Amino acid sequence: MKFLRVLPLALASLAFAGCNDDNETDNDSAAIQVLLIDAPGDYKAVNIDLQKVQVNATDAAGEEGWQDLDAEVGKYNLLSLVNGNYAFIAGQKFPAGHIEQIRLVLGPNNTLTLKDGTTVDLKVPSGQTSGLKINVNEELKAGITYSFVLDFDVAKSVVARGNGEYNLKPVIRAVPFALAGSIKGTVTPLAAKPQVMAIRTDVANGDTINTYTDANGGFQVFGAKAGTYRLEFKAAAPYKDTQKENVSVVADDVTSVGVITLTQ
């Protein structure tokens, strides 16, 4: 299983704010780094077999098409990528130009471990051939470092087929990190184990972002666009659901909501 890192607040300053260090880029190149995080589902483990990370890009000379990035291939347990943990999956210098999509190509060894400990194959109908495509549509400028955070929503992506088998139909957002903020906090008691939903309320049809608390009750919602949100906590019985209104998110910043206590 791949090594995980804790997502630093300083990461936001890398994305789209840029870097002019000649050791990282040259006069014709940008730099790309791709990070993977997760909004998990109600399982013990979701392991994906990552084989390639590619970008669909057009460079300044007009050359276009899918190109491989230097990727950290291997198995990743998506359910470990919560509350600040992330996996660095690709990064390198890249010609300036336009990037349309990022694609994750998976191998055949994807598995799902259910709550009862049973491990089953996780079928990826299209991911093993054409890959999992995520729209980006960003211009890459020379001398700038771009950080793309891929938010893999397992709760929406794992689909039961009804015969004891499961498909992976990925729901993935590509977040340019400096254009977004995050919300963090802690939920007590630990036994409540709530799903946390951040629902944007200051615009019509605002984003909804999902995550779960970790083993210590902590949570962090990444990739929230600047605005106002309602946090909803969907708790396990016998604890009651609750919510917190008017949570303000600022780009390139972390909003802390402190401790949220759920009652029976």
Mean pLDDT: 81
User: Which stretches are low in confidence, meaning pLDDT under 50 for 5 or more residues running?
Assistant: 6-27
The major pleated sheet works out as: 9 strands, mixed
* Strand portion: over 45%
Instruction: Specify the overall morphology.
Output: globular
Helix content: under 10%
How far do the termini sit from each other? 38 Å
Number of helices: 2
Radius of gyration over all CA atoms, rounded: 19 Å
Which class of secondary structure composition applies to the elements? mainly beta
**Secondary-structure element order, N to C:** EHEEEEEEEEEEHEEEEEEEEEE
What features would you describe in this structure?
This protein has 264 residues and is mainly beta. The strands form four sheets. Strands 3, 4, 5, 7, 8, 9, 10, 12 and 13 form a nine-stranded mixed β-sheet that branches. Strand 12 and strand 13 form a beta hairpin. It contains two helices and 21 strands. It is globular.
Jot down its keywords.
single chain; 264 residues; mainly beta; 9-stranded mixed beta sheet; 5-stranded mixed beta sheet; 2 helices
Topology:
Blueprint lengths: L4 E2 L4 H4 L14 E11 L5 E15 L4 E5 L5 E4 L7 E11 L1 E10 L4 E3 L5 E5 L8 E9 L4 E9 H4 E3 L5 E3 L3 E5 L3 E9 L6 E6 L7 E5 L5 E8 L1 E8 L7 E8 L4 E8 L3
Parallel strand pairs: 2-11, 9-13, 15-21
Antiparallel strand pairs: 1-6, 2-6, 3-4, 3-5, 3-7, 3-8, 7-10, 8-9, 11-14, 12-13, 15-18, 16-17, 16-19, 19-20
